[in-house]
Amino acid sequence: MTVKFKINGVEVEAQEGVSVLDTARxxxxxxxxxxxxxxxxxxxxxxxxxxxxxKGGRSKLTxxxxxxxxxGIEVVTDSPKIRKHRAxxxxxxxSEAPGAQAVRRMAAEHGVDVSRFVRPADGEHKRDNCILCxxxxxxxxxxxxxxxxxxxxxxxxxGVGSAFMDQPQSCIACGACAWVCPTxxxxxxxxxxxxKVVRWGRExxxxxxxxxxxxxxxxxxxxxQKVAKLPADFYKKSPGNRS
Length: 243
Fold this sequence. Notes:
alpha+beta; globular; 3 domains; Ubiquitin-like (UB roll); four-stranded antiparallel beta sheet; 6 helices
């Protein structure tokens, strides 16, 4: 079913179930975000994609990534009110990730160069520019299908990693978490036939092609074999023996 509504006074249309954010971007309207990825279900964690939506004569600010299009609504993507709230959100995020270039760049675009909300150093619980968007955990579950990562801890000790805050043993070092991370805080290295996902401390041996070039971690390849239902002998050696 096609839904018709307006964005910044322009009549647009989209299929039922599509988000306001995706529709706005498809029509060329700029809406910033940090935690949105087209391959992953919307979560609304970063709150940067705020827009103002009028429905039935009543208006409200809401995240556009997880707000589905509705007939007759009117969407405003930019206004003094929206910019004020986005700036506040970005100031809070900047206090969590002061070293993240993507955050600093987006904050500066909204007039925020420094944050009033300074997060004190907290030793082992330092987030290292993690903004708790959960993209890493969600791509691991929804796309990769491994579920090695999750939220853990509470309050100001909340973080992302294994359920018990140790090395995630089911991690296959595919690197999807590092790929989708908006602040580049996960870290990804390949050296001496090993692949390491730095943030989780997970390091696994790489399988090699016939020319001896590293291809992917053996655990990742065996996971693909299982998901794709490939023949049992598709990979002839076990992860512990394959070189």
